[in-house]
Amino acid sequence: MVSSRKQRIDTLVAEVEREFQETSGSTGISAPDARLVEALRRVPRDAFVPDDSARFAWENRALSIGHGQTISQPFVVALMTQLLELTPESRVLEIGTGSGYQAALLAELAQEVFSIEVVPELARSAAENLQRQGYRNVRVRAGDGRRGWPEAAPFDAVIVTAGAESIPPALVEQLKPGGHLVIPVDSHWLGQDLVLVTRGADGTLHRRAVLSVIFVPLVGGEGGTVDPWS
Ligand code: SAH
Which GO molecular function entries does the Swiss-Prot or TrEMBL record give (predicted)? Predict the structure, then answer.
């Protein structure tokens, strides 16, 4: 039986909610909040995947977007977004624009989104796509995101959607007091630990490993990636 677009979205939301529940022992979060669920329903994921994958757009899995890159799994996108604790006033920095899907979700929940993508073709197609979908509060730049976006800093939230060897110090520096940074950091085992860094109101940093995840690598040499905790 062919299901309608609405049924597919309902099924995806149910799966995302189930995965929040199943991983709550590790993440400490048992459900996505209502605003996030609404945003997941609104963002047309099918508009952010290549035409030949559009039929899989509402499945809870990562998909190829060319250039060896992927659009992340909806559950992971949702979890990372929830960890940022966005408000309608938040200014957010994303590293790894990719398809632009995560940027669109952030744009639904925050005031302003700044997103950096290292593959120029992806930066261009994501920016076009975001514009076509009516997202006016996202700015996309091509370049190495590990340096952040100093002219627009500081940010209430920073999200890195590629696996890093260590946490780029510039991204921590560009985080406001009370802000959250979420980043997959290579684990000693396989893949990465999704790490949540919070800057306290007094400026102090706290970090917590939330869940094991697998991301494509954050590219770039070793320069300037000294882990502030090591
Ligand atoms: N957020 C994306 C998922 C992107 S996959 C989405 O919603 O579709 C990770 C992306 O990070 C890839 O597009 C990759 O090219 C990009 N990337 C890797 N290293 C980077 C770097 N140093 N700076 C900016 N982008 C980078």
Answer: protein-L-isoaspartate (D-aspartate) O-methyltransferase activity
